[in-house]
Specification:
Oligomer: single chain
CATH architecture of the largest domain: 3-Layer(aba) Sandwich
Structural class: alpha/beta
Radius of gyration: 32 Å
CATH class of the largest domain: Alpha Beta
Number of strands: 31
CATH superfamily of the largest domain: Succinyl-CoA synthetase domains
CATH topology of the largest domain: Rossmann fold
Strand content: 15-25%
């Protein structure tokens, strides 16, 4: 990958004691094979640590012919970093001793802390107190260690059975159990790492700290993360938004599904699944999310061996038609573009390829193509200015040696600054031999779909890097009474605001509303209708009645008083048949909005990520179609535009078959007004505006129906 530089000055010295120690103590080192203490010490020695190693164990005078100390305090020399592999009950005492010794960092591999609950939680809290007291940095507890392959350090402080090569991938995992699998996968792909860290319980050092450290590390060009949870989403957001402009971050995030969904009383809450906020956050930060570790390795391979492309135009070079068709289908399905080769390019190819060859994209040289044809064709295609990325597919005929073909491909690609992806359908041993034999070889994949998925993800990263940062617009709130409305509702136990108060809040933030009158259950709808005017809409009102149309609670286009009374009687019968009469709190008499497209704007409060904003196609089918997009705060104008363009039905908003384009700028502004409102009023926990009628004429756009729920006021300290 091309070198990415940053002008951001990230503080790094606080973790240098962990990653660049001059001396380390292994507390719990042992000569007993099959133990973590033995494997850890052996890995440190075998990897060639550049500093001094002090084994610590009162049971031994020496280990591997090296003097062993009874305690860290008995070591006569300074110690920068201590690895702790001892029973959980003794960890705090040893950590205190390390603090008194002046040790700068601890890597605690011992388990039995927060992950087991009970006394383990108390032990972890004690570690936190010691960290604050002495200022040392802690990796873990309950981790599998750390690794730094820098030639000046050479520290393999893990108990993994595999020895990784030096490379440009910095990787963090929250799962120690997966750590071994990750390192094995890296080695299998002939990838190297700059750093590897298993953070364990994150009593101190978190993924955010590592992002901050690796951002300015010249050896780390790609950052990979395996996440099970987020500690501080806001800090992660701020860091990753800056870092991804210079270095790609790839994340595997577990926890995509849940055994049961939480109860929600709004369309937005019901549509916001467990994983929606994570997807929204990562997208807004430019972080590439993948579903599996295998996908991550495919992508790391692409980003560490290739430059980022200038565009999305892909050319396929092959000696077999079937794989080329598969690759073409994948390119189109991923939203990439099949490059159009120029006449000059096709003429050059015709000069040395058999006449049976296909000279249009995909370029099929037929099965007789050998190393020379691949090399020449690569040079010609890479020179075509209409090509951004090349996929080379080779299915070995009996008489052609794959290594020779890959040698020519590697040579040709080295002359150009365009990404090349190789798909080799050959015997297993070639996938290990070719990358080792040709260090400058492009990334190698077994199947076309894997290569295309990687290309698509890298192209998405390119788009992010080129994307403007966007702006946050602030609108005036013109009603000072809004604060009192919210506080009164909170003091009353929270819940949904009355329709009158909802309208007042929305109007204060500049949302255009339909005129509406709230009629009590024993009130006169005719009197309200005289204020609104005909035609009108009659709706049931009830805090617990979310889907009004499901219970016959909406009747539209009522033209006069006679039909209004008939509609009211019909609605009463429908509500009784649905068994919701006792939940009815009144009726809404509302003006009819002009016809247009129905969209939804909403918000729900996520426990981890805070306000989660939603936009999509609205109306009564919103939960069936689920054509929606989410974003976490803050939301810029660029985020708003991406939300709108990200739904499947966006072409309908642009106008089809002679229809007018709706006012997209109005929707962008409405999303930003919503973002400001939920930021100004943090007590809002759920909100729906559905439907919002949008038309080509901004003056005709209206919020037709809306609900706002606020949290109850929590008692202050000392209150019951």
């Amino acid at each position: 990958m091309t070198e990415l530089t940053s002008n951001i000055d990230y503080p790094r010295q606080t973790l240098d004691a962990v990653f660049k120690p001059k001396s380390i103590a292994v507390i719990g080192a042992t000569p007993k094979r099959g133990t973590i203490g033995h494997q850890l010490l052996q890995n440190i020695f075998q990897f060639g640590f550049s500093g001094i190693v002090f084994p610590v164990n009162p049971k031994y005078e020496s280990i591997h012919s090296i003097k062993c100390y009874p305690s860290v305090s008995s070591i006569p020399d300074p110690v920068d970093l201590a690895f702790i592999v001892i029973p959980k009950e003794s960890v705090a005492q040893v950590a205190e001793e390390c603090g008194e010794k002046g040790v700068g960092g601890l890597v605690i591999l011992s388990a039995g802390f927060k992950e087991v609950g009970g006394d383990g939680l108390k032990r972890e809290e004690e570690l936190s107190e010691l960290q604050r007291k002495y200022g040392f940095r802690i990796i873990g507890p309950n981790c599998m260690g750390i690794l730094n392959t820098a030639p000046s350090v050479r520290l393999n402080g893990t108990f993994a059975p595999t020895e990784p090569e030096s490379g440009s991938l910095a990787f963090m995992t929250q799962s120690g159990a997966l750590g071994v699998a990750i390192l094995l996968a890296v080695k299998k792909r002939n990838l190297g790492v700059s750093y590897f860290v298993s953070v364990g319980n994150r009593v101190d050092v978190s993924g955010d700290d590592l992002l901050e450290y690796w951002a300015a590390d010249e050896r780390s060009n790609v950052i990979g993360l395996y996440l099970e949870s987020f500690g501080d989403p806001r800090r992660f957001t701020n860091l990753s938004k800056e870092i991804t402009r210079h270095k790609p971050i790839i994340v595997v995030k577990s926890g995509r599904t849940a055994a049961g969904s939480r109860a929600a009383s709004s369309h937005t809450g019901q549509l916001a699944g467990l994983d929606i906020a994570v997807d929204a956050l990562l997208h807004q930060c430019g972080v590439i999310r993948v579903s599996t570790l295998e996908e991550m390795m495919d992508l790391v391979l692409a980003l560490t061996k290739n430059p980022v492309p200038k565009g999305d135009r892909v050319c396929i070079l092959t000696n077999a038609g079937g794989p080329a068709i598969m690759a073409t289908d994948a390119v189109v399905n991923e939203g990439l573009t099949m490059a159009k080769l120029t006449g000059a390019t096709r003429k050059k190819l015709a000069g040395f390829l058999p006449e049976e060859s296909s000279l249009r994209n995909p370029v099929d040289m037929i099965a007789s193509a050998g190393p020379d044809e691949y090399g020449k064709a690569m040079e010609v295609i890479l020179e075509d200015k209409g090509v951004d990325t090349v996929i080379v597919i080779f299915v070995p005929p009996m008489l052609v040696e794959p290594r020779e073909v890959m040698k020519q491909v590697a040579e040709a690609s080295s002359h150009h600054k365009k990404p090349v992806y190789c798909v080799l359908m050959a015997e297993d041993h070639y996938y290990d031999e070719i990358p080792r034999q040709f260090k400058n070889a492009p990334p190698l994949y077994r199947f076309p779909e894997s290569a295309v998925r990687a290309i698509s993800a890298v192209n998405g990263y390119r788009i992010w890097c080129e994307r403007p940062e966007g702006n946050i617009t602030t609108f005036p709130c013109e009603d000072p009474a809004i604060e009192n409305i919210i506080n009164d509702q909170r003091q009353s136990g929270g819940g949904y605001l009355s329709p009158v108060d909802v309208n007042r809040v929305l109007r204060a933030y500049g949302f255009p509303l339909c005129n509406v009158e709230l009629v009590p259950t024993d009130g006169d709808v005719v009197v309200a209708a005289e204020k609104i005017g005909y035609p009108l809409v009659l709706k049931v009102h009830g805090e617990d009645i979310i889907h009004k149309s499901d219970v016959g609670g909406v009747i539209v286009d009522i033209p006069d008083e006679r039909q209004l009374l008939g509609a009211k009687a019909q609605m009463d019968r429908s509500l009784a048949d649905a068994g919701v009469t006792d939940r009815v709190e009144g009726f809404l008499v509302q003006e009819v909005a002009k016809s247009g497209k129905e969209v939804i704007l909403g918000m729900t409060m996520d426990e981890t990520f805070g306000p989660l904003l939603m936009f999509g196609m609205g109306g009564k089918y919103v939960e069936v179609l689920k054509d929606i997009a989410f974003r976490v705060m803050p939301v810029t104008d660029v985020d708003a535009i991406e939300m709108i363009k990200g739904i499947r039905s966006y072409p309908l908003l642009e106008g089809v078959r002679g229809e007018e384009r709706v006012d997209i700028d109005f929707i962008v502004e409405s999303i930003q007004r919503l973002a400001q409102m939920v930021n100004d009023i943090p007590a809002i926990v759920e909100l729906d505006m559905n439907p919002v009628i949008v038309t080509a004429d901004r003056g005709a756009c209206r919020v037709v129906d809306s609900r706002i729920r606020v949290a109850p006021l929590r008692p202050s300290a000392g209150q019951t």
